[in-house]
Amino acid sequence: MKHKDHHCYKIVHSIVIWIGLLLSFCSYAQEHNLIIKAQELVYSDPDESIKIAEHILNTSEDPEQIAISNLLIAKAQIVKGDYNKAVIFAFDKTNHTKSITKNTQLELNLVKSQLLRRVYLDTQAQDVLDKGKELLKNLPQNSYKDSLQCLIKLEEIYTLNERRNSDKAIALIEQTQREFNSFLKTNITEKRALFLAKERAYNNLAQYDSAVVYIEKTLKLLNTSQFNDLYQKALIYRELGYLHLQKKEFNKSEESLIIASRFAEIINNPILLMEINKDLSINYLASNQNAKHKIFNEKYISLNAEVERTEQLAVNSLYSILADQDEEFFKTEKETHNNYLYLLIAGLLVALFVGGYIVIKGETRKKRRKEIINYLEIVRHKDVKAKPVKKTKPKRISIPEETEQLILSKLKRFEASNKFLNKDISLAVLAGQFDTNTKYLSGVINKHYDDNFNTFINKLRINYVIDKLKSDPHYINYKISFLAEESGYSSHSSFATVFKSIVGMSPVTFIKLIQKERAESKQKSSN
């Protein structure tokens, strides 16, 4: 009887074990399917992808699945434009578990590098990419390895493009296309990304014909992906709209930017929406649609403040996370290494990190300051210089020499008279005052000043304000709305937009630079 009971117990025990294994396998398979689903939704429905990945984080104990979930959330947050949240998940300490596969480590490194690049920490971003390259050496040669190598190259290309090293970017793109020629024939996503990067490089160089060629190639591959990538669609249509804007094709630019904004709104990306609204604002300003310009310029200003706040949070999070990770590393290695040495290294790493960020920001400010000082030196001699006539350049409009010289002399008197501050001034009004027609007046301005009428007037007005800010100390304390009114503009926003387009920075920043320059001069003279 006892033997029989013992035999039954063994059977029941075996059944329980098998049921447990089956349930465990089913649970793993279910989580694996959820990961695949989350991957499919990252670029089309990032919020849903985040929900799925968070569910896996709450239910799974597998380090690999936890790391992949963190990776997916970081990617989805980048798509949503929230770099701070992306940093938190990409740099989570659980991602450093030794059992995590090299493939996942590599993809995490790519995301980390992307985040560091976007907050201008290029040195740190390249360090992370270099670690990824080392991990790649141990992977077998296959299409997945080619994909990761291509993505690393793309990260380096994006850095060159964003820092305006366009010639180097084009050279690296062409090298990548040659190196991965076979891979790119069957992998559309990477091929399209290289086309778009090449378009951006040519756009930066103002080689618009070449840019058009590569944006058209990009568009042909737009709907060939397996998944509905709304993020890429928003990026591509924004790039198309920006290219049309550079070519002064305002209607086409507006159409493409509106399409881009719809995709950006679906994924709720404030960074993309900020860039799109900025381009639309410039478009409407250039095409004299002032009401629309005001609407989109206000949207841009609001989004810009939100984006700057998020990016600053991301920088703070990076500093805190990296410092904590260094501290944790020193604790685990304390038994085999000299603790004081690691504390010194930690201090150096933190100092390099913070110092690198401060130096980059400082160099950017110095560059902008140098540009404005150079600009002030130019306008100090003469507000608007007539462009020398190039004899080889054919005339668009045939104007009698005597009439041309008469109009030019009247323009000189007009510059000295400050009549350009009149809000009602227009090409037709000024032509009437000069006793000539609009074609002749426009032709002379274009020939001798290399500007259209609106730009000619805007430069005179802005140079007038700059001279006042330099010569009259009271003007530094006036509100921007007063400066706008004083210089002939009907609104604060239109004045600020024109000022930035001509000088390269906002009126507020310009005034701060002059105040700083005066304070430094005063300090030097007192010493």
From TrEMBL:
Transmembrane segments: 12-30, 340-360
Pfam families: HTH_18
Cited SMART domains: HTH_ARAC
Cross-referenced InterPro entries: Homeodomain-like_sf (IPR009057), HTH_AraC (IPR018060)
Stored PROSITE patterns: HTH_ARAC_FAMILY_2 (PS01124)
Keyword list, A-Z: DNA-binding, Membrane, Transcription, Transcription regulation, Transmembrane, Transmembrane helix
GO molecular function, one term: sequence-specific DNA binding
Domain (HTH araC/xylS-type) ranges: 401-513
Name of the featured protein: Helix-turn-helix domain-containing protein
